[in-house]
Amino acid sequence: MWERAKSILIKEFKQIFRDPRMKTIIFISPLIQIILFGYAANKDINYVPTAIFDRDNTKESRDFLRDFTYSKYFVPKYYITEEKEQNHVLDKGLASIVIRMDRGFGRNVKAGKDATVQLAYDGTDSNTAMVVMGYANTIVQNYQYRLMKEEAWERGGIGDAPYVDLRDRAWFNGNLISRNYYLPGVIATIVTMMSLLLSAMAIVKEKEIGTMEQLIVSPLKPLELILGKLLPFGLIALVQIVLVTVLGVLWFHVPLRGNLLLLLFATCIYLFTTLGIGLFISTVSSTQQEAMMSVFLVYLPTVLLSGFAYPIANMPAIIQNFTYINPLRYFMVIIRGIFLKGVGIDILWPEILPLALIGLVVITLSSLQFGKKMG
Amino acid sequence: MNNAPEIAVSVRELEKRFGDFTAVNKVTFDVRQGEIFGFLGPNGAGKSTTIRMLCGIYAPTSGSGTVGGFDIIREQNLIKEHIGYMSQKFSLYDDLTVEENIDFYSGIYKIPAQERQARKEEVIRLANLEDFRHRPTKIISGGWKQRLALGCALIHHPQMLFLDEPTSGVDPITRANFWAIIKDLAGKGVTIFVTTHYMDEAENCNRMVLIYHGTIIAMGTPEEMKTKFMKSDVVEIVLAEAQNWIDDLGRLDVIKEAALFGSNIHAVVYEAEKAIPAITAYLSGRGAEVGEIRKIMPSLEDVFVSAIENYDKAHEKS
Q: What is the ipTM of this complex?
């Protein structure tokens, strides 16, 4: 069995490495993707463009505003002088937040009375607005705390006002760099796309150029053909994951805390599912174009329902049930666990096990389907 | 080896339907070992479907058959070890070199390592590609590709060779060369099963069937075909300016059909003995310069056209 599979395998490698377009797709496009995503998949919010509308213009109001502008989060982009401008800057997207201070702020603060500040957010990107709101709240709280301390001091320094000091610390991603979270996921999607695409082309390409018929009349067994076809793509996918991992670690400083070998092992198991699905697509398609369409049809929901960008826990229960048959769901947890948490197989086996099970089912079904077609 | 010709392919009531469409309608025939067996018919007659059932690409809807003594339904895997197959869609990888293509099929057919080099040389000699062995297959021309494909199909020295329209789209000289190779192989005892819609190629076959609408409508040696299946005679008329006379001649009672054949006229007649005097009288009475009028042996093309017309007429009536 091995001998015939080896002939196919050698042929596949020769064809891949002789085709410049194929070489680009295999080795250059994952690198481009990881670089693009490395810079683009960044949900950290720094440098919020800020518009300031200071109608009070007292020492107190400038003091308050300084707390904002001295933090690295808020960058004053626009100073509003007239009422009508306030909506204009948000409409045009010149600023994401407008800080408006009405007359009397300074007077009230000095008199020890309640003072108001208005913050208007651009809420189109709800996520960003929430984060910005959080920043602003912290700054306002700190300001308030300082006021209270100063007032206590002026009253004769009889003790500080009580204050709960929150000391928070994020595990696994200490500086909460969103890239660290997204990049391992990007690596998983790259492997998914590549292995699906290559295996989906495997059989249908031979059908299209007419060589499939010649293989069918030969003593070649379906399993030998599958092995000879999928093994090269599996090996290529492993090389790809090493390539993009190295780039992610060296270029973007994504921490790889776990075992690279465990990652490769888990990838091998994951590849059974994607290569199996690709083989199935290749078997039932009659043209390469058809196969390509099917790959995109499969790829999109696979990524959407994997927890790559949208947390599964937030999805409605029915949709959540679907995610359990999605192999990428498990691989996403595994790859993030290995990269960021550095956990081992003792923690990850509840993910690896269902993945292996799905892989077994998929590869068996598509081999049977292929065997039926090949006769 | 037995002296009596053994049966290489035997087919009984073989049928293939695709939905409502019957591609092959219960055909029965035998192919003897070492003969060139032609499977002829117009496009869409069911030739390729039949050859594909014999090679294990399609499963028959009903009927039975054996190839090399193996059952075509249950023992496909054994059949595949013993046959070579080549179709008009050349089975080569364009991006591999000539040698790499050969190596690939060597591996698929598990040629023992010590024999591979010799077999490879054999194929390269057959395809006449000594100077192109390291060139990618896509640069070599159609005729050479076809012979390389044939060589690859023969790499495991099969006892039977199935050729599905092997010469379609190939120039006449390459076709002649190709048939020389086929005859040579048959001389060495390889059974050749070949489909074609080129009726002139049929003369190369030892025996043949004519298939039309999935049904076999004639079967035999070329001689038998010309005598048994041709109910009419063919008369060749040599005369000056034949094209001016053809319509008039077609209207004569003794002539079923008249057609230009080069600068002469071939007329299909009911009975040459009666027709020749009538034609002579008609032409000389009108002052035509008649050279010669004689009965000739019909070509296979004449036979096939006439057999197909008879079939059509019979099926119009029913």
A: 0.84
